[in-house]
Amino acid sequence: MADQPDYYKVLGIAPSATQQQIRDAYKRASLKTHPDRVSVDSPERASRTRQFQKVNDAYYTLSDQGRRREYDAARRDHFAGEDDTADEEVPRGAGAFPWSTFGFGGSEQERQGRDSDQFGSVFEEMLREEGLATDEADGQSVPTKKFWSIVGAVSGGALGFIVANVPGALAGAVAGNRLGAVRDAKGKIHVKQQYPSPHPSFHRLRVVRNVVIPDLFESVLQHDEIFPHTIPTMATAAASVYPSLENRPIKDTVCLFDVDETLSPARQPATAEMQELLSQLRHKCAIGYISGSDFAKQQEQLGSSSVPVTSLFDFCFAENGLNAFRLGKPLASTSFIEWLGEEKYQNLVNFTLRYLADIRLPRKRGTFIEFRKGMINISPVGRNATIAERNEFEEYDNVHNVRKTLVEALKKEFPDYGLTYSIGGKISFDVFPTGWDKTYCLRHLEAEKESTGVEYKNIHFFGDKCMPGGNDYEIFSDSRTIGHSVDSPEHTMKLLRELFELS
């Protein structure tokens, strides 16, 4: 085993990693090292190919429980004297194994066949997880509508780029996406007829999805100074995939969503399943999100480095709608500090910092007061806390009412400032002018009657902090909305499927 790499190190995981962690690490490592990310004549290609093979071998060994047990036993014997790699939880084996025990011996032809089988099955699994493939009765993987949309978008994007540079690429990608979606019904049959067994190109589509498309849009984002119209164009082009607001099948209805614990886990990305469901819903009615957080946080959770969040929703209401976008274009905004005034603002900040300095918590991190355009956000533990530290504070706060006590102190100290205090999420609360709660965004929806003739008579709101004092309470209980209290993104998806007959 001396000449073989430590497969846990190859994947960048601990020897105690779960099977899911191994699978996730493989996805990251395979996409990072894939040789197709560089040109055929690149000097890096040979080293990338070797590294990619190591990653592939590591997953082959560790993804199977039996192979992993044998490997762990041999590895433990080999690394028994090295503290940084020995794993005390792994049962000790009877002795070292020849490397062929794990299936890596044999002729080059046998190895290539094994690699092809492995590579294909892994990528088919990844495609299924992303909704790009389904299993038929005969056990074969076939493309879904989402598959053909991606293929169409890539093809259309490449053609558009050739014809009209960046803007053309975006328009072409959208057009190709629609063509790809239309092709699905026939394409599914075509693939089964032409390729009785899964085609190698189909196995590698995940690389296209995660490498080619992001690289295209990242290139666009990096040149927005040269093409300042590109980002709005991207959002507008994406919106054109859906019927115009006045032509949605359910014309008088809009669905608004809180973000944390409604569309995604707190401060974490939304799942592909949620994104797909929202896309289905957007074909039926208007959709938007409403959050007290700043726009950058929604971009992290709902968009990506290559996809602007404004292209995924008709209405984007950050900071309760003080920072708002409609079909990718910004709407008029207002500043909290201009409304309150510098002197009062500093009084509020100084009092809060002195208060926080005098209390002791299990942990304190950084950024206790975050200034936003329409409010300030106060966090006793600090917004730089990790996920684990956030969870720890939430449990502590549930017992000791740290946030509620601070809110009461602020109300007592500044009774004439005209402020509202709204507790939300796990670690913080918002402070904003009374009336600037989440109902502020409704004025933008009401303006649609004049601009497009659409009157939203049914405004569905989904949120998790709908109790009095929660930051969803005002809009949840407003007479203009139909409120839905949820406890998780999964709960949100369940309600959407029931209310709008989504799949």
Automatic annotation (TrEMBL):
J domain sequence ranges: 6-75
Active-site residues, record numbering mapped to chain: 258 (nucleophile), 260 (proton donor/acceptor)
Substrates-to-products reaction catalysed: alpha-D-mannose 1-phosphate = D-mannose 6-phosphate
Main localization (coarse): cytoplasm
Function: Involved in the synthesis of the GDP-mannose and dolichol-phosphate-mannose required for a number of critical mannosyl transfer reactions.
Subunit structure: Homodimer.
UniProt-listed NCBIfam families: HAD-SF-IIB (TIGR01484)
Protein's UniProt name: Phosphomannomutase
